TrEMBL record:
The keyword Methyltransferase does not apply. This is Amidophosphoribosyltransferase. It holds the Pfam family Pribosyltran. It comes from Dorea acetigenes. PANTHER family: AMIDOPHOSPHORIBOSYLTRANSFERASE. Its EC number is 2.4.2.14.
Amino acid sequence: MNKFEKVTTGLGEECGVFGAYNMDGGDVASTVYYGLFALQHRGQESCGIAVTDTYGERKVHSKKGVGLVNEVFDAESLESLKGNLGVGHVRYSTAGASKAENAMPLVINYVKGTLAIAHNGNLTNAVELRHELEYTGAIFQTTIDSEVIAYHIARERLKTRKAEDAVKNAMKKIKGAYALVVSSPRKMIGARDPFGLKPLCIGKRDNTWFLASESCAIAAVGGEFVRDVKPGEIVSFTKHGVSSDMSMTISPEKQARCIFEYIYFARMDSVIDEVNVYHSRIIAGKALAKSYPVEADLVVGVPDSGLVAAKGYSEESGIPYGMAFHKNSYVGRTFIKPKQSERESSVKIKLNVIGEVVKGKRIVMVDDSIVRGTTCANIIRMLKSAGATEVHVRISSPPFLYPCYFGTDVPSNEQLIAHSHTTEEIREMIGADSLGYMEIEKLKEMVGDLGYCDACFTGNYPMEVPGKDISHAFD
């Protein structure tokens, strides 16, 4: 057995997509690179960039690999990626193992030219679509469902006049969650699933158009946020301008954005579907303070996604807000755990408690979720070792009870602590003095009138889902 093992902390993030089209013909690889940098929190396993020159030979040049954006790319490799239309991707593996060949964007050469595709999400009918393609002669190079989407777009393109019509026809077949950025020889196309489960937005800087998973990436490249791509919308960017196809949209009451974007996934400086992520987390913290008041001396948040909710709890309760943890910013979500004999805690590698802040105090500790319970238990132990007299835990999401089929790496039911234990049992197991989860009916306060998906808490899926976990069906 290997003396080292990899540790993944917390929930699995999703993926991040970014596209740039410079209508003046300037190279965009470095812009895509910085856009991906701003989306690194969405995926830290692999990344890639594919570019094409819409004015020249229209050949796609790409580079991708396993690792962080700044590990895979350097100045020399970016310089070699010549082209004014680019698609980029950061990946966290939800479907398909973390292998180099599964890195995106996928580049497909076919009769009509070359497609580059970046995808965030998970298809619920990927297995049947893949088998259908295989029985008509398709040969797959990867184990990811994004390749199924790429094949369907390529096949439909043979029957359609425009690439965006091929995307629309493919959308009629695929089911599940997706935000797509596709480059054809002369077009950049963005598409969002009809439920709006995955975010996608449009930005602009001078004569360059952008597509991105989050608005923070558009800001990072000096762009101006234009608007969100609407659920079910297909947007197309060419030298003639921007066009939109809304024929795949569904009624607003059926739309179902992933609520976890607002609780955890998205960066706090992003705005998704006109809801400010920072503001939604403040509201979550205030709701927790109303539902679970407690006498305490200090409210602290677990970095990073618990910090803003902790601020909201503090504002509503009147209990002072403080910083109790130093986070090591150089440790990713996945890292090598030292062998057991060295006895280092995986949590301590990432977080350290600031003793003088918590010593002798009753602490309210706010975090975004409890998945297996081990991380939370370790942090509580660290706080009490540093002298905290009480630790009251408040969680800005309801308990996880059901699997996600749409691209969030929620573990199987057996691994979810809330699936087989009551709140009181969990409180005892993690060593907290009290424990309060966000009430399901209060999630609505975070996003107002937006339709959202809370299936991982309620089991109410917005569409039909498979009877078994599909996240590693092709491995």
